[in-house]
Write a structure and sequence with these properties.
Distance between the termini: 49 Å
CATH architecture: 3-Layer(aba) Sandwich
Number of strands: 5
Number of helices: 12
Structural class: alpha/beta
Helix content: 40-55%
CATH topology: Rossmann fold
Number of domains: 1
CATH superfamily: P-loop containing nucleotide triphosphate hydrolases
Order of helices and strands: HEHEHEHHEHHHEHHHH
């Protein structure tokens, strides 16, 4: 599955900078409308270490109304949390009606790091697939919009990013010994990721695989996907789109190849 993902996909920085304010305005309007209509949403991010989850989330949240969302960076369960059913700690973080909950990693750690690192017995992480599907199905039945992203990079790209981060005194703290250990187990994590995607991709909680080698393409894809999902959920209640918000310059809207094809077609029509 993941070996067929085109990791060369990219988007020009200049075009993204032009597009970003429009995407952020639209997302802000949808956030407010979901609040007014009491529609809850969950946006969760999984993926490789150093794949850009943090920077993508920062772009996502930078223009949202902070009163309408909560961000949860998920760590290993604390001792007292281990005394409860494993999904209990996530249940406490579910959004109220109208709110948005954003998870930087999530309950999928049960079938990822806990599986690969041997932190959870095999029978428990295998059962977790069914637990997760049932959990998300229940939330969707209650009207919650579930949007799941997996940020994908190659093993070589991950290594390059780790080394680059380690050279920066302000960023070196991001790379810990356990991150290099995970990198050495890239193939094992790849198997776990593919099993997760296969067994938990559902109609009510579909996965969106994000090609994350480029810096700008993931942010664009994530924002556009969230906008599309919220618009679909709101239906006729979605706020109208102002034409000027989405009208790009001609050079941005139509690439050179398309313009040339149109010119050639017009020339042929006149000659005929």
């Amino acid at each position: 599955m993941l070996d067929k993902v085109d990791l060369s996909q990219s988007f020009p920085k200049k075009k993204f900078k032009k597009l970003l304010p429009r995407l952020q305005r639209r997302l802000y309007d949808l956030e407010k409308t979901c609040w007014d209509h009491k529609i809850a949403s969950i946006i969760l991010f999984e993926g490789w270490d150093a794949a850009g989850k943090g920077s993508t989330i920062a772009t996502l949240t930078s223009r949202l109304d902070p009163r309408g969302f909560k961000l949860y960076p998920i760590q290993a369960p604390r001792t007292y949390e281990l005394n409860h059913p494993w999904l209990w700690r996530f249940w406490l973080k579910l959004p109220n009606y109208g709110e948005m909950a954003i998870f930087d990693r999530s309950w999928y750690g049960r079938v990822l790091v806990e599986r690969v690192e041997g932190l959870t017995p095999e029978d428990q992480w295998r059962t977790a697939y069914r637990d997760i599907v049932d959990f998300e199905h229940m939330l969707a039945d209650d009207g919650t919009v579930i949007i799941k992203f997996f940020l994908h990079i190659s093993k070589e790209e991950q290594k390059r990013r780790f080394k680059r981060l380690e050279k920066d005194p302000l960023e070196a703290w991001h790379v810990q010994p356990e991150d290099w250990e995970h990198h050495r187990k890239y193939d094992q994590y790849l198997v776990a990721f593919e099993a997760m995607l296969e067994q938990t991709d559902t109609e009510w909680g579909p996965w969106t695989i994000v090609e994350a080698t480029d810096r700008w393409h993931p942010r664009k894809k994530v924002l556009e996907t969230i906008i599309a999902r919220l618009e679909d959920r709101l239906g006729p209640d979605a706020p109208p789109v102002e034409p000027e918000d989405w009208q790009s310059d001609e050079d941005d809207a139509i690439d050179a190849d398309v313009r040339q094809a149109m010119a050639e077609a017009e020339s042929g029509r006149k000659e005929g």
